[in-house]
């Protein structure tokens, strides 16, 4: 699944609703087109990652620098349920 635009307090409930419909083994999200994420988005991703109950970790592909920075300053990059992957998105 690809996240596009901004993930913040005004959009996080829509993300949670979509995540609730994914199959149990859906553990890869593409963030290449995510332009902004605040702490509410981070918290939603952490909750989803922990809900995978062994089917994880949640793999976040093409993590933009500003989103990676949020993970770093909050310490969330150390969460064993989440893997951050950088790199350019392919077409």
Characterize the biggest β-sheet.
4 strands, parallel
CATH-wise, what's the superfamily?
Answer: STAS domain
Distance between the termini: 15 Å
- Rg calculated over all Cα atoms: 12 Å
Please state the second-level CATH architecture: 2-Layer Sandwich
CATH class group:
Alpha Beta
Structure class: alpha/beta
Question: Treating each run of at least 4 consecutive H or I residues as one helix, how many helices?
Answer: 3
- Calculate the mean pLDDT score and round it: 92
Q: What share of residues is helical?
A: 25-40%
Within the largest sheet, what's the order of strands? Answer: 1-2-3-4
Strand content: 25-35%
Order of helices and strands: EHEHEHE
CATH topology, which one? Answer: Transcription Regulator spoIIAA
Number of domains in the coordinates? 1
Supply the key terms:
alpha/beta, Transcription Regulator spoIIAA, four-stranded parallel beta sheet, globular
Description of the structure:
The chain has 91 residues and is α/β, with parallel strands linked by helices. The chain has one domain (2-84): 2-Layer Sandwich (Transcription Regulator spoIIAA), CATH 3.30.750.24. The protein has 3 helices and 4 strands, in the order E-H-E-H-E-H-E. Strands 1-2-3-4 form a 4-stranded parallel beta sheet. Helix 1 packs parallel to helix 2. The longest helix has 13 residues, at 39-51. It is globular and about 30 Å long.
